[in-house]
Amino acid sequence: MFWETRSIFTQLTVWQTLVLGLALLGGCQETLPPPRLTSQAASRVGPLPGQWRIAGWSVEQRPLMLKEFGNGRDVVFFLAGIHGDETAGILLVDELARYLDRHLELLEGRKVLVMPRANPDGLAERTRQNIRGVDLNRNFPANNRTNGPEAGEIPLSEPEAWAIWQVIHQYRPSRVISVHQPLGCVDYDGPGEAIAQAMSEACGLPVRKLGARPGSLGSYGQQIQGIPIVTLELPEEDSGLDGPQLWARYGKALLVAITWQGR
Question: Does pLDDT of 187 surpass 80?
Answer without folding.
Answer: yes
